[in-house]
Amino acid sequence: MPAPRLGRFRYDLRGELRLDDRLPKYLPELSGNYIRNVTVGQLATHTSGLLLPTDHPPWPNEEFTREQFIALLNAFTPAPGIAPGRQRVYTHAGYVLLQLVLERCYGKPIHALIQHRILRPLAMGSTFLPERGPDHRAVMDAAAMQRVVQGYSDQGMAIGPIGNQQSYFDFPGTGQMFASARDLAAFAAACVDGRAIDPHLREALRLTQREAFRVDERFGQGLAWETVRLPGVTIVDKPGGLNNASGYIGLVPARRIGIVLLANRGEYPHEIARYKILPELAQLIASH
Question: How far apart are CA 222 and CA 216, in angstroms?
Fold first, then answer.
């Protein structure tokens, strides 16, 4: 098995953000012995080594304010052998921290950054990141609420109200995004083709797909995306979900194909797309 490999991403394409910058450049309040040596790129590639209570069972009962979150990060002490950039450890908290870095760097809330940089250029008008109201439901107008579906467990039990916003973090931008299948299909198309979109955005989407860390012979990690090497095809994908919703986007960039799965239930088996549908589609296209 090859040793883990970490690539180097120095800048975003506009020169606005160095992915190899350490976090205190953007968040000086991060002063802990471990966290101050983590870089922006390590957050984006899940190689920071962070593993907080919100990342694994038993899940916490409490919510964390921004100040409490920063205190947790400053107090973080890794397990033996863990160091920034040395390993791939999936961390939800790392992406919440990445949100704070981006907001501080660009001076805008994360929902505005996503809207301005991604959703509007791709005409994804049915995708948004709403704030969470006092009843833990997304704050949105009546028309949007009518389009939102009820979420269910994998056993068919309704979980939470329509528009449920689950989060362990009690500050804006840390709840769920809402999107339509049509919007996510447009996003997948931009990722595998993108000839009709802004060149900066097209190259940025390609950059995110580039493997930065080799986990083993089959799996690798890009900027959020995961890479899966199967016989005759390499898939770039990302599964995700909660106990009442599941989502999956899978790409085969070499064949310019992609697939989107959305389910209003937890634990939907994304493996059918990763290991069956996409490889067979890629083979079918290659044979023609």
Answer: 13
Bigger pLDDT: 20 or 5?
20
15's torsion region: left (phi>0), alpha (psi -120 to 50) or beta?
left
C-alpha distance from residue 226 to each of 22, 129, 154 (Å): 23, 23, 24
230 close to 214: Cβ distance less than 8 angstroms: no
Mean pLDDT of 217-222: 97
Length of the chain equals 288
C-alpha 93/C-alpha 88 separation (Å) is: 14
Q: What DSSP state is assigned to residue 56?
A: S
C-alpha separations of 185 from 25, 84, 150 in Å: 36, 35, 22
Q: Is residue 1 very low, low, confident or very high in pLDDT (cuts 50, 70, 90)?
A: very low
Q: Scanning the structure block, which residue is given the tokens 């989107």?
A: 260
Helices (H) then strands (E): counts for the chain: 9, 7
Q: Please tell me the pTM assigned to this model.
A: 0.93
In the chain, % of residues over pLDDT 90: 89
> How far apart, in whole angstroms, are the C-alpha atoms of residue 171 and residue 49?
23
- What does the alpha-carbon distance between residue 70 and residue 53 come to, in Å, rounded to a whole number? 13
3-state helix, strand, coil in the chain (%, to 5): 35, 20, 50
